[in-house]
Design goal:
Blueprint lengths: L3 H9 L6 H30 L4 H22 L11 H4 L2 H15 L5 H14 L9 H17 L3 H11 L9 H13 L3 H14 L20 H25 L1
Helix pairs in contact: 2-3, 2-6, 2-8, 5-6, 5-7, 6-7, 7-8, 7-9, 8-9, 9-10, 10-11
């Protein structure tokens, strides 16, 4: 409002309290987070010239190969299989800053608005135009934000976040990433998609950490029995598919 009297009235008004104020504040923080998320999605579109998932994956793979080649010119012993790419694309100062923000956000599990703001702050420390070359530093931030959004019931934003993180090399094959994406899809009613992702998580979860003693709520991510059944169906289907492929190749 351009009228100074309006501004004075706004400043003098009693602050809104209670659930409505909390919900409104969370929506404002969500808007800020989605602005940062949009920048990362825009970076993928700029890289690939399209939003086609296969084209994006190909372009990210090529950019990763080029980054690895540049690093090997500096250090011929560099091996992306044993060294995270983010360790060489990011400065120690940036990685330390992001790590500290992640610790703070994880400590705010019961305060989603504050946690989401910190996840957005962490994203701002990373290069938006090349976040996909930041390795686990970037993927950890997105998974943390996705978890916060999921627990807050912001499912559209959670799904967009978890879809995005899958484009970061090394994320696919991470049990918790597949678990969280599956949990979000399940809550959104995508039973088929949830079964696939939860099945992948269970199949990859060799130590059983994610799914152990589900009924007692233990483990890194306890889930309800219905989701666990979906995971078992998905893992069984994945096992059958792998056996079929092995049989055809044999």
């Amino acid at each position: 409002c351009a009228d100074p009297s309006c501004r004075s009235l706004a400043m003098a008004a009693e602050p809104e309290v209670g659930p409505r104020a909390s919900a409104s504040s969370l929506e404002a923080t969500l808007s800020l987070y989605e602005t940062e998320l949009g920048k990362w999605w825009d970076a993928l579109e700029a890289l690939a010239g399209t939003m086609d998932a296969e084209a994006i994956c190909s372009c990210v793979d090529r950019a990763t190969e080029e980054a690895v080649a540049r690093q090997r010119e500096v250090d011929s012993t560099f091996d992306p299989e044993t060294c995270d790419l983010g360790e060489v694309t990011l400065s120690d100062k940036v990685r330390t800053g992001v790590d500290m923000l992640c610790l703070r956000a994880n400590a705010l599990d019961d305060k989603p608005e504050a946690a989401l703001k910190i996840w957005a702050d962490a994203m701002r420390l990373l290069p938006a135009d090349q976040f996909y070359l930041c390795g686990t530093t970037a993927s950890y931030v997105l998974m943390g934000a996705g978890d916060t959004l999921h627990k807050s019931g912001k499912l559209d934003a959670a799904l967009s976040t978890m879809r995005l993180v899958m484009f970061i090399p090394g994320t696919i094959g991470t049990p918790y990433a597949h678990f969280l994406l599956g949990a979000v899809k399940a809550e959104m009613g995508d039973v088929e998609g949830a079964t696939v992702e939860l099945g992948r998580a269970l199949f990859l979860d060799e130590g059983g950490e994610l799914f152990e003693t589900v009924s007692e709520g233990k483990g890194k991510a306890s889930i309800d029995p219905e989701l666990f059944e979906m995971a078992k169906r998905g893992a069984a289907e994945l096992q059958l598919e792998m056996e079929r492929i092995e049989h055809e190749e044999g």
